[in-house]
Write a structure and sequence with these properties.
Layout: H1 3-13, H2 15-25, H3 31-53, H4 66-80, H5 85-106, H6 114-155, H7 166-179, E1 184-191, H8 194-199, H9 203-220, E2 226-231, E3 234-240, H10 244-259, E4 267-274, H11 281-298, E5 303-305
Helix pairs in contact: 1-3, 2-3, 2-5, 3-4, 4-6, 5-6, 9-10
């Protein structure tokens, strides 16, 4: 009798045992965090059964790219679990060992032609090596992508306030808020006479004022708000769910907080609401800055809301 179907049938029948073996060996996984990974391993074992039953080699058994996509998905899950490269290798090595133990314990290999046993063992090693190598490549790409994103965020962070800079706000943060299709307001806080302070050589004071403004905005805005340094002397806030009246009250809290500050500086505020005052990132910011310009004309730490 052909040995391959018997071996593959054993693997299918003992799927729960193989997965239990794998999970026990990878003790770091609890029931909640381990479930997605165990599900991925089950998919991989099923794919191996298909490979074992097919005449394909490891180079031709692509399943239309599904094999590589499966391993890439496993890499994503491994990364979410905090695996490192050693952990990635261990996941595949342990699975291979559990499959071998299941076959060894459930199939009388002495009654199967030696060529069939050798074919199973060769395919198991080839599949394990391919999955490990491909998985490491996918895992490395994920880590590299995350590092590049982190570097990009760091490069787009203002060093004085620690907030995202204007470029990140315009290219990413505000468009994301508009794409959500939910109501929000934008408030831009502008430090009066900031340029004159810098021109007078009082750079340390200017930086201190800007940091204090950023702190006051963060302290006064809702937890899910988004903040950025919008210009040399401006801090911007996106206030999800707030209409213009709610944003006005937020601005009042900021000014009240700064009123007791010994730094003695004034802040003007422009406010606009999406989508009432603008249906695109450009429109909403144009209306916000128009309101800010009016507030600066009035002076004296004024708050102006864009006109409907």
């Amino acid at each position: 009798m052909d040995g391959s179907p018997r071996i593959s049938d054993r693997i299918n029948e003992d799927m729960a045992g193989i997965l239990s073996c794998w999970r026990q060996s990878r003790r770091a996984l609890d029931d909640e965090t381990g479930a997605p990974m165990v599900a991925r391993m089950e998919e991989l074992v099923s794919a191996f059964v298909g490979f074992l039953r097919s005449p394909d080699t490891v180079a031709t058994f692509s399943r239309g790219g599904a094999s590589r996509a499966l391993v890439a998905g496993i890499a994503e899950t491994q990364h979410e679990l905090g695996r490192d490269a050693v952990g990635v290798i261990a996941d595949y090595a342990v699975l291979r060992r559990c499959i071998w133990r299941s076959v060894e314990g459930g199939v009388d290999l002495s009654k199967i032609p030696g060529g069939e046993v050798a074919r199973f063992f060769a395919k198991l090693m080839q599949a394990s090596d391919w999955a490990t190598e491909t998985g490491l490549e996918a895992f490395d790409a994920i880590v590299r992508r995350e590092m590049e994103q982190a570097l990009g965020r760091a490069a787009a962070t203002d060093l004085v306030t620690g907030l995202p800079d204007r470029d990140q706000f315009n290219r990413l943060l505000l468009p994301q808020a508009v794409a959500s299709n939910e109501r929000f307001s934008v408030a831009v806080f502008d430090v009066a006479d900031f340029t004159e302070t810098v021109a007078a050589g009082r750079v340390k004071r200017a930086r201190r004022i800007l940091r204090r403004l950023a702190e006051a905005v963060r302290e006064s805005t809702p937890e899910n708000s988004v903040h950025a340094r919008f210009g040399d002397d401006e801090v911007c806030a996106i206030l999800p769910g707030e209409d213009s009246e709610g944003a006005y009250r937020v601005a009042e809290r900021v000014l009240d907080l700064l009123a007791g500050d010994p730094g003695d500086f004034e802040v003007d505020v422009g406010v606009a609401e999406y989508p009432t005052h603008g249906a695109s990132p450009g429109e909403i910011m144009a209306e916000t800055l128009k309101a800010l310009k009016m507030a600066k004309r009035v002076g004296g730490s004024g708050i102006v809301v864009a006109r409907r």
